[in-house]
Amino acid sequence: MWSQVTGSQDSGHSPGISSRGVVIAARSHQLTIMKRNDKPSGRTPWLQFGLALALCGFIARPVQACTIFVLTDTNRALFCNNEDWSNPKTRIWFVPAKPKHYGAVYVGFDNGWAQGGLNTEGLAFDWVAGYKEIWNPDPSVPRVWRNERVLETCATVEEAIAFYREHGEASFTYARILLADRTGASVIIGAKDGKLQVETSKQCRGFGYGARTLDKMLASSTEPTVANGAKILRACLQTGQYATKYFNIFDLKSGDIFLFPAPAQDDEVKLNLAAELKKGAHYYDMPQIHEQLTQAPQALLANMEGSALDKYQAIADKEPKVTEHVRTMLQDVINGTVHMDDFTADLWKEAAPSLKETQAQIKSLGRFVSLTLVDRSEEGGKRSYRYRMEFEKNTILQHFVFDQQNKLASSQTEDFR
After folding, report:
1. Which residue from 27, 158, 228, 353 could staple onto 14, CB 3.0 to 4.6 Å apart?
2. What is the DSSP string of 150-185?
3. Which residues are CB-neighbours of 233 under 8 A, at least 6 positions away?
4. Domain 67-304 maps to which CATH number in 3.40.50.300, 3.90.320.10, 3.90.1170.20, 3.60.60.10?
């Protein structure tokens, strides 16, 4: 639930971490402004590990974004969503089933954090951010790191409720999630007065930025058709800095996906989950989706792949000074002695306001144990490093990018256990 911090764009839903140059963005704060806004989401630019949403933003803000709702009757169940945020780089990606994991489609941005999605069992989710609640998950239960986890392992609303009772979701401090399954059953989960709040229903309902308009329109028509869903979503569009960047409608029984990559235009793209999964793991850039549908599928990027820790193994570390620098930066975050000179100006501007929160996030992972280089490459003249970071309670795959002046330009958590 954390989101990446690149210092060059707003991506929406996660916090991160940095120490003398260490930045790990958390995906859960991003959600504060978007949907979870995102899996959204006020975002803290550093260590991206712990929160599950990666929607939009650094810090929870008193602004709700995104509108999500369910249209259902005895024959059909539609899950509808407006994605509101500042980042125009929108994507949709498909991840086939793996042992003990369901296949699914996810929607979001170029940071790879799923803002919403639908799995092969007919379970869908999305977030609304902008709340401010007291919530301290039980430290003895596993943390939710990626929004995708619930779709990977749950087939029904009841299973999803059990999942969030058994896992710590930090994003409930500023966001709420709506889940629905193919039966038309739905649940809104969040926090209230320090306790997990679970609201189930089998009726049409929703919430978010366009709540007033949504309620009025549902009072007059709850017909579960794509046309009706699109009509309501258009009526709830947000404009301005966090304008709606796309909207989607999932048919939870058929697996049909109705994507509207340009909300202001009459532009509908129909896909089918089963058909897309037969193509293997791949993604589309929403602004270019019409063109890309005529081309060979694009392989998933690293930040879209689950279980990335299994993909990377230790490699020879030919730059031990860089590794020591990363280690020092991380320790600086833990000690509260972060150095501004370790960051690019843009990244520091994003990271500085949330240093204390970042420190607390890292400390929650337990004692820092080891740092192992697993990948090294060049990206547009910048140096890219991936490290396996072992803590007493958790293991993280963290991606760092340094500029030519050896300043941290971006950092993103790509896996978390």
Report:
1. 27
2. HHHH--SHHHHHHHHHHSB-GGGGTEEEEEE-TTS-
3. 67, 80, 81, 82, 247, 249, 260, 263
4. 3.60.60.10
User: What does the alpha-carbon distance between residue 123 and residue 158 come to, in Å, rounded to a whole number?
Assistant: 10
Q: Model-level pTM? A: 0.73
The residues with which 225 forms a beta bridge, in sequence order, are: none
pLDDT tens readout for residues 293-337? 999 999 998 778 766 777 788 899 999 999 999 999 999 988 989
- Residue 129 to residue 28: CA distance in whole angstroms: 10
Q: What is the pLDDT of residues 104-136, one digit of tens each?
A: 999 999 988 899 999 999 999 999 998 889 988
CATH 3.60.60.10 location in the chain: 67-304
Q: Could you give the CA distance from residue 65 to residue 245 in angstroms, rounded to a whole number?
A: 11
Q: For tokens 């869903």, what's the residue?
A: 229
Cα dihedral 344, 286, 116, 40 sign:
positive
Rounded Cα gap, residues 160 and 402, in angstroms: 39
- Bridge partners for 82 per DSSP: 67, 247
Cα dihedral 124/31/235/89 (nearest 10):
-90
**CATH 3.10.450.590, the chain: domain bounds:** 312-416
CA 67, CA 358: separation in Å to the nearest integer?
29
